[in-house]
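Teaching assistant's notes for section 4

Start the section by putting this record on the projector. Ask students to predict, before seeing the second block, whether ATPase will look compact or extended. Collect guesses on the board.
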Amino acid sequence: MQGMITRNHLERLTQALDAQAGVVLLGPRQVGKTTLAQDIAEARDAVYLDMERSADRQILEEPDLYLDEQMGKLVVIDEVQLMPGLFGALRGQIDRRRRAGYRTGQFLLLGSASNTLLQQSAESLAGRVSYQELTPFTLDEVGQGALPALWLRGGFPESFLAASDRASLSWREDFIRTYLERDIPSFGLRIPSETLRRFWTMLAHDQGGLLNAARLAAGLGVSGQSVARYLDLLVDLMLVRRLPPWHANVGKRLVKSPKVYIRDAGLTHALLGLETREALLGHPVVGGSWEGFCIENLIAAAPRGTEASFYRSSAGAEIDLILKLPDHQLWAIEVKRTTAPKVTRGFHIAADDLAVVERLLVYAEDREVPGQGGVRAMPLANAMDRLRAL
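Reveal the predicted structure now:
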């Protein structure tokens, strides 16, 4: 069934492979990277290797022997972060292939951790590869009618497409357990899984709140440094977003702490044990969950190279999401789970301070209306369409 949902990234990835020797596709486990890579491989002369399979790892024990034979083919290497020594060999392979006339579409590398992988590959493969990130399903991939299910279950394909809300929640609980007990230890990180689960759950309760490392450390009985390490890890695994505060000098005292969101709403709900839409709507996290869900979808829809942040001054002027587009224009976006298209005066003060070009309110109705002070109120799908059109 996942194959019936066309991923926005299919075209982007195909274009990147047609322009570059290699593409590194990053994204959390189970997000659909392998399915997408296999769709691309089927349309090309390609070979597929999975570094979780010992037989495939053995093939690449002496990478040049095997890869020389595959010259001219697309080589897909899945879970490439498990073979960190490979990147040096890939650099030589790309250079050899270029000399032989194969300049594009040579390697598609799939990885489940950003920084550990990026540090290794960035040094070896600088200028030779393009980086892409695959997110869970977004609203424009599954259709506006599926918004309630996408928000409740999140966008991981197996969770979103499950036969029932109960089956979806079970899948997400297993996913969280596997990450804590198997995947994170596989990176050589010695963090007690129970401590990390409690940390992740505390973030879920505080979805979209300002990071208060001291409070989290006190709650877990660990040091502030440990909290920073846990957060770095979940950000690297692309499971948590640390949304930075706007930092350009506007002559105001601004909040310095980032806001923290669990990136997939379905994981937020699983950590809190929320199985049904009714349970979600009755829970205090509902506002933060909706805000995080909309922000992830809006960032995914924004043009490549867009920078995301939020604005909050000590006087209380606030903007939920600022998008700095590649042409340096600023969009100010407020997210509200309300049917009334109104923003606060503080939003307008902040938007004036920043000289934004667009003021949007993403709200829970399905029609677009002009609001006060140049704000346009619209459903999430419309705001995403406007960003995709840029």
